[in-house]
Amino acid sequence: MQPEMSLKTIILSLFSGLLALKYPGRAFSGTNHPGNDISIMNDTLPFPPEAGDNLLVNLMKRDPAFFQPILSQPDTFRVQIIYTSIQRDKSGKPSLTNHRYRLNPNEYFYPASTIKLPVAILAVEKMRELGPLGINRNTCMVTRPAGERLPGHYNEPNALDGKPSIDMLIRKLFLVSDNDAYNRLYEFIGQEEINQRLQALGFPSAEIRHRLDVSISEAENRIANAIDFYGPSGNLMHQVPERRSACSFTKRSDRLGNAYYKGNDLVMEPMDFSNKNRMGLADLHETLLRLVLPETVEEHKRFRLLDEDRSFLLKVMSQFPKESVYPSYPEPDYGNGYAKFILPEDASQTRKNPIRSINKSGMAYGHLLDVAYVFDEHTGVEFFLSAIICCNRDGILNDDVYEYEETGFPFFKRLGQLLYQYERERKRPHRADFSELIFSPR
Predict the structure, then answer these.
(1) Contact in structure between 123 and 162 (CB atoms under 8 Å)
(2) Which residues are 372's β-sheet partners?
(3) Fewer CB atoms near the end CB (10 Å): N or C, the chain?
(4) Is residue 4 part of a domain?
(5) Which pTM value belongs to this model?
(6) Per the domain annotation, does 140 fall within a domain?
(7) pLDDT, tens digit, 9 for 90 and up, residues 210-267
């Protein structure tokens, strides 16, 4: 005999069915199904090389004093770059041309905070699934503890009403790359669902295995805390139970550096990253491209976002921290370049319509990364640029001796300048309409 279904379950089931009809290829569910074992595939290369494509090398050779040391030492700096130019027809439809430099899916790098990008998008997707229950991104979301080292989250001092919500978590995640905000969204979705969804979307390199900036076990990272949603009057609207991931990840052998510190001890061997997060540059680049220009990919590869969801993400991602009211991040601690490495010109940020970067950057273990869509309402310039550089000449990890300031940040700034100037010189018969990206500070 089947157990009686609650009205809430019936509503979610009906809504899941409608979503499945509109968006084939994924099973929607409001509950977790333990035992769904998945295997994570190896990386692929969605941006194949074009014959004779030396554009990026030729551009970097325009500034040999800066770029020649990087070009001549590929094994030291381990630079990878993807640049996508955009040409629009008179109706605004975009055509894309991809260029790459040293793109290598077999050369592991630690993705750091860039993995927050797909997790934030999937959190909005999951929030939308709960829409029939009256839940939206501003609904109060309380995270319950799941053990001594998996604490709860009950209030949000940065919010106007002091209540935690998906809206506030996503703002903090993109504005200042807040690690705890990412961890809460990781718990909301759950490790298993994150990886299943990314595989279904065709991101084979993605392995999102753990929270950030916390020292817990692999088993603890498989646990997703229980979540409670509350209405304006304090009424309980919905409960998401504690879940345990059954993901079966591929066996990897990813090691970086020549040595690393473990506490105060120097271990004279490469550091093992085989159980850490992974997402190749091509998949990160494609993630952002699908968010900004969903019309350029097949429908089954698009994120399941309403127009208002996508608009929210794009506007938050393009904001400078000082432009946010809630949460508030005043200067000088949070300047325009905070968490935005690819910005072509500092001076441009003082004008009325500054150059914007819809992006997610990352910095850890000597790696600097940025995945960005750069656009300039004033000139009509727009392009995608994703890159990584290793800033660890001595090869020792966890010693906090990295060349971010001397090499990494200048690399991204100069690379952005080169591509921006190249785009300024390129013929552009039809300009994009950036009106959906223009926002009022909040």
Answers:
(1) no
(2) 359, 385
(3) N
(4) no
(5) 0.88
(6) yes
(7) 999 999 999 999 999 999 999 999 999 999 999 999 999 999 999 999 999 999 999 9
